[in-house]
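Would you kindly consider the sequence and fold I have copied below?
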Amino acid sequence: VPLKVRSMVGLIPLFAVEVLEPSILEKLPTFAARTEQLLAKRKDLADLVSHFTVPGHGERRLLSLLRGQRMKCLLKRMLDPKEFLSEYGIRALS
């Protein structure tokens, strides 16, 4: 009998998300420049991660291992009461 299993391991990319305020990027110009250089040179990597070079609300930048559609799919599954979310938090087996 096939059994549909979801693993908490699939949620790990959510741990690697950071919203960078403009003031932080102003204090770290080398970091911002090197990140933009890396994403420009490595299109294969740039296609997998968030659009760091596109400013969001208040000129904030999203640094994430997930792109928008992948993040939405993951959050949809994680926040679905039929999947991971329970009234006590995220379901898991140990």
